[in-house]
Description:
The protein is an alpha+beta fold and 327 residues long. Helices cover 40% and strands 17% of the residues. The chain has helices at residues 11-15, 66-70, 122-134, 139-152, 155-158, 172-187, 196-205, 210-213, 224-245, 250-262, 278-301; strands spanning 22-36, 42-50, 53-60, 77-83, 86-87, 90-91, 94-100, 214-215, 221-222.
Amino acid sequence: MLPVMSDALSIQAAKALAQGAFFSGIFILRKCATKTARNGAPFLVIEVGDRTGTFAATIFSDSPVFERCSAINEGCIVQIEATVDSYQGRFAPRISTIEAIETEDLDSINLENLVETAPETSDELWEDLQEITNSIPHEGLRNVVQSTFEEIGDVFRTSSAAVAMHHAYRHGLLEHTVHMARAAKALLPIYPEIDPSLALAGILLHDIGKTTEYMQGLVTKRTRTGILQGHVVLGYQLVRKHGLKNKLNAQLLERLEHIILSHQGELEWGAASMAATPEAVFVSMIDNLDAKMGMVQRVLRNAVPGEEFSEYLPGLKAPILLTPPPV
């Protein structure tokens, strides 16, 4: 067992090192998947992370750390020694040592350095969400939103918005929802055809099913219910329950439910139906905008100084230019 290191680097700092440089760090083992090469030999693909970013690495079966890594559970805190390397333009270090940190040693580790969070505090975001909720003009829709959040409790404040794609960190769901609502308030005057109460209620509730879809901890994972039903169905069920509880007009409830069912934008992205009301189109477009801009914001704040482009982002199908435009 390695002694807990005092000179551990963050992932952002490690990415700034030269090719071939040695580094050590303390990270969360986010994923560890066993795969099979063409020759039939097993290998591991792991992903580790801290609050400054993530990286993936491949460990082949002939590596001295293969067996040890195979025995470490996802979500554990590990300390790693590695050499800087790259694969297809991505930071992909060669790992020479990996050890799970024992429970008795966790007190010496600052967990805040490991868990990525939204840049704004949850208190600031939650205060904004409350103000936006109270600003919904239609009393019935406002009551449905308030009633739904009362049932969910504090889990909404801490939940991630995804496992990996966008706002995939603590308070990410709260940040994503508030940013969407802020964007909606700015855009609503341009589109008088949109009912403001229905649009805002739909935005605040569109991803509410994610509070059940995901289990929260050092690593975000999907629950059994999340795998079997998904957040669109779970959100629809929750919103319908509180719509009926608050005796919301049946046609208004149908329109609110439709926003939940269609907000993913495309059937292949997980939508249960295509957006077919002005408010549903509006919400799905703002959702897509903030999801993509969330990816951009995250990669910019975790950028390594001096790098011109980020790594390829699957959600955007491109890398991002990191340098600002000339003044």
